[in-house]
């Protein structure tokens, strides 16, 4: 919904929250349900109200538990039947510097200040440890914003007695905990309040009148940021950029002005603006974001512009370059198809408002930020939170190389007349093993990203994956695939629940990048082998249809299963009675499972 895209009108969102919610709920879209507990050190009702809007817009249908005013610690530490029955999928702890119970004074010595810092930190650490033991779910914790006054003036951040210095010390301890604990995330209200303006954010009126730890107009800014973390945890980040060229990556029109007259580089102030923007875009490659071009241009001119001597981005930085005179909506859909992703995974960046509106109407789901002046391009993209990083996996860092290798595979496929000969030419090697700590983040990421090849479309957080991996009542497998063009990383996952002699397939998914390379058959062979080891005689598969996974409707039939039932909505149950002499289906992938 455009009203919820950055830069948004906070006053409008607060005033129209009910009608916005009705409009979102009326949309015919699939959303994943999540139970979110909000434990507040201040009033949180309006935060929850606005947070719900942003989550609905991100494809998450939340239900909430809200602690009583300032009872965040009690709810976490003591037995709470209501919270126990709620059983949260994620916990958000909304605290602020108003919840720091004691600060150093000018008379405190250094040892006393250090002990005080440890006491204040331990108050929170005990709570996090208790929440992890009880719920083992993702936890989002606010850090601390700066105080709204500085008793020591500019020395407040330098001298140990200063509140700014004390808050910085607490925040550093929070950050170290986050670095060393999976499923724990910091909501950076120190940065948010600085961007918003600390005097406005921390206006004491709202605390003393309503017990808000921030001013009412800033609540949408806070809620948008929290929603960004939650949607990233549950795999709702964008995956790719589709970038215009003229007046977007450089100043001017390459076809009219010529490469030599483009504004890029250090010679002019505007050239510096576009250089900085290109540097910002290129840095996304290291996060695994796929860069692509969608430009109305002759390809020759587009490539010449990207080879400008003062440019930062080069043609080889992009996975797909669509520089032609076709509608950009068509080009964007073709890019999605070539990358094996959905249009909703793409952010379209274009200075032309007419082109932006066309994409909104003809490529539904694609994110289309509202750009204004080039000086603000970075700010708009960055604060939109399209690519919020919660965990950066090794596969993320290698993603651009992986997709480049996919293009090489496609070119090789076109040179073969026989598909099996092509598969054999890839020299594929698969690694199939039970879930391991090294890959937990990637496994959780896959469960939340894969839509088209996902038979049950169940979603799991990393903490849930870790619990399943440690449970002897489950069979878990991940599959990696390598070939002569490179390593595809972890591309497929199986989770089966063991009940007597039956394995119930609760999750089977695969990245669309490796479709039709027989990895699904290699996984099936390994599932059967593991079942034989455990005395399991039947495998029961489930297919739950969505708008996106129709391609696997008959997957179990292809694997030799028989359909047991199917309801009016298409939910189907399949079963395979494992034969004594099981004939392997994979003949092209060399599998390593040790």
C-alpha termini separation: 48 Å
Low-confidence stretches: none
Report the biggest beta sheet as strand number plus sense, adding barrel if it closes. 8 strands, mixed
- Number of continuous helical runs: 23
Which class best fits the helix and strand makeup? Answer: alpha/beta
What is the helical fraction, as a range of percent?
A: 40-55%
Spatially, the strands of the biggest sheet line up as: 15-16-14-13-12-11-10-17
Amount of beta strand: 15-25%
What gross morphology would you assign? globular
> Radius of gyration, Cα only, in angstroms?
26 Å
Mean pLDDT: 93
Counting DSSP E segments of at least 2 residues, the number of strands comes to 17
In short:
The chain is an alpha/beta fold. The protein is built from 23 helices and 17 strands.
Structural features, described:
Helix 2 packs parallel to helix 3 (45-57) and helix 20 (440-449) crosses helix 21. By secondary structure, the chain is an alpha/beta fold. 41% of the residues lie in helices and 18% in strands. The model has no long low-confidence stretch (mean pLDDT 93). Strand 11 (474-483) and strand 12 form a beta hairpin. The protein has an eight-stranded mixed beta sheet with strand order 15-16-14-13-12-11-10-17, with helices on both faces. Strands 2-1-3-4-5 form a five-stranded parallel beta sheet, sandwiched between helices.
Output the keywords:
594 residues, alpha/beta, 8-stranded mixed β-sheet, 5-stranded parallel β-sheet, 17 strands
């Amino acid at each position: 919904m455009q009203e919820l895209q950055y830069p948004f009108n906070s006053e409008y969102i607060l005033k129209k929250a009910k009608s916005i919610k009705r409009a979102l709920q009326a949309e015919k879209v699939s959303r994943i349900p999540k139970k979110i507990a909000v434990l507040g050190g201040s009033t949180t009702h309006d935060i929850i109200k606005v947070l719900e809007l942003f989550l609905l817009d991100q494809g998450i249908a939340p239900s909430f538990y809200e602690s009583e005013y300032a009872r965040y610690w009690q709810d976490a530490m003591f037995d709470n039947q209501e919270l126990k029955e709620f059983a949260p999928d994620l916990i958000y702890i909304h605290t602020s510097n108003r919840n720091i119970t004691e600060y150093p004074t000018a008379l405190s010595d250094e040892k006393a200040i250090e002990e005080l810092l440890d006491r204040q930190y331990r108050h929170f650490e005990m709570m996090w440890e208790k929440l992890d033991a009880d719920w083992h779910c993702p936890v989002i914790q606010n850090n601390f914003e700066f105080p709204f006054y500085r008793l020591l003036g500019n020395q407040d951040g330098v001298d140990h007695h200063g509140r700014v210095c004390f808050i910085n010390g607490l925040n550093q301890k929070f950050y170290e905990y986050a670095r060393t604990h999976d499923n724990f995330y910091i909501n950076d209200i120190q940065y948010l309040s600085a961007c918003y303006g600390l005097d406005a954010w921390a206006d004491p009126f709202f605390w003393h009148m309503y017990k808000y730890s921030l001013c009412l107009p800033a609540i949408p800014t806070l809620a948008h940021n929290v929603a960004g973390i939650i949607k990233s945890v549950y795999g709702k980040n964008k995956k790719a950029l589709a970038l215009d060229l003229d007046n977007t990556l450089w100043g001017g029109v390459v076809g009219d002005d010529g490469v030599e007259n483009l504004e890029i580089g250090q010679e002019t102030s505007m050239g510096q603006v576009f250089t900085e923007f290109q540097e910002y875009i290129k840095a996304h490659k290291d996060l695994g974001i796929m860069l692509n071009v969608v430009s109305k241009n002759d390809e020759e001119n587009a490539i010449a512009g990207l080879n400008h001597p003062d440019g930062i981005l080069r043609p080889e930085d992009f996975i797909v370059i669509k520089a032609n005179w076709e509608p950009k909506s068509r080009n964007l859909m073709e890019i999605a198809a070539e990358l094996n992703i959905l249009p909703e995974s793409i952010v379209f960046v274009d200075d032309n408002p007419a082109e932006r509106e066309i994409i909104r109407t003809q490529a539904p789901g694609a994110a289309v930020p509202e750009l204004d002046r080039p000086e603000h391009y970075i700010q708009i993209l960055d604060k939109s939170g399209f690519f919020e990083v919660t965990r950066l996996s090794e596969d993320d860092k290698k993603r651009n190389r992986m997709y480049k290798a996919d293009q090489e595979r496609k070119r090789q496929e076109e040179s073969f007349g026989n598909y099996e000969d092509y598969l054999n030419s890839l020299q594929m090697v698969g690694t199939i093993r039970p879930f391991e700590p090294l890959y937990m983040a990637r496994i959780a990421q896959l469960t939340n990203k894969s839509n088209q090849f996902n038979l049950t479309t169940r979603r799991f957080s990393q903490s849930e994956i870790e619990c399943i991996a440690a449970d002897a009542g489950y069979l878990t497998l991940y599959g990696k695939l390598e070939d002569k063009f490179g390593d595809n990383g972890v591309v497929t996952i199986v989770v089966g629940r063991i009940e007597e002699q039956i394995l119930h397939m609760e999750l089977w998914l695969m990245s669309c990048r490796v479709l039709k390379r027989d990895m699904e058959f290699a996984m099936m062979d390994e599932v059967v082998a593991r079942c034989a080891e455990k005395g399991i005689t039947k495998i029961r598969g489930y297919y739950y249809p969505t708008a996106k996974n129709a391609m696997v409707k008959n997957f179990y039939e292809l694997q030799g299963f028989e359909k047991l039932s199917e309801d009016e909505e298409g939910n189907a149950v399949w079963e395979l009675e494992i034969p004594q002499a099981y004939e392997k289906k994979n003949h092209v992938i060399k599998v390593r499972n040790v």
